[in-house]
Amino acid sequence: MKQFSRLLFIFILYLSYVNADSNLITDLCKHCDDPKLCLSSIQTRPESGEFAATTNQIEIIAISAASANASSTSAYIKEMLSREDLEPATEATLEDCQKNYQDAVEQLDDSISAMLVDAHADVDVWLNAAISAIESCSNELESGAGNDAELSQRIEWFLKLCKNALVINKMLI
Which residues form the Pectinesterase inhibitor domain (predicted)? Predict the structure, then answer.
């Protein structure tokens, strides 16, 4: 019986710890334009279970989610560029987008580095730079050169992830 009581106590402590983290994530995400995306993008990251105890840690996870999305989209663009049936204008647009995504990944890496030293103003600058780079890609695609529904969706998703991270960061400044 004593063993069972200890296990029950440990389990209750664990649940309160998990709920505290979950509550903190929920509290931060409710300020975002897309709270559901914010919650899911943070809670589905492998590191969120053991690493999401503070607002700074949650911010790092949010930026990591945006970075993972950017890396995936960069790979998607690279795959599109390997097609031989691309028109020159489409190819030029995709090459520009590829470079912008590579820049965005670097800027998000810089954001994480800035978060590690609590330089929240720098995080703001790097996140806005990443957003600007991908908005440039979006504008080129919308002008008609290389419009691709999946790429447009990926861009929209990336921008939302970055804006969620930006909202969380502004709460830390």
Answer: 20-168
CATH number of the domain that residue 112 is part of: 1.20.140.40
pLDDT digits (tens, 9 = 90+) for 2-34: 443 343 333 333 433 343 357 888 999 999 999
Q: Kindly report the CA angle at 163 between 135 and 55, in degrees rounded to 5?
A: 150
Quote the number of domains for the chain.
Answer: 1
As separate numbers, helices (DSSP H) first and strands (DSSP E) second, the chain gives 7, 0
Which tens digit of pLDDT belongs to each residue from 120-134?
999 999 999 999 999
Amino acid in the structure at residue 136: S
Specify if 161 maps to a domain.
yes
Q: What range defines the domain where residue 101 resides?
A: 22-171
Count how many Cα atoms sit within 13 Å of the Cα of residue 12 in the half-sphere of its side chain.
Answer: 6
Using alpha carbons, select from 102, 18, 29 the residue that is nearest to residue 61.
29
162 within some domain:
yes
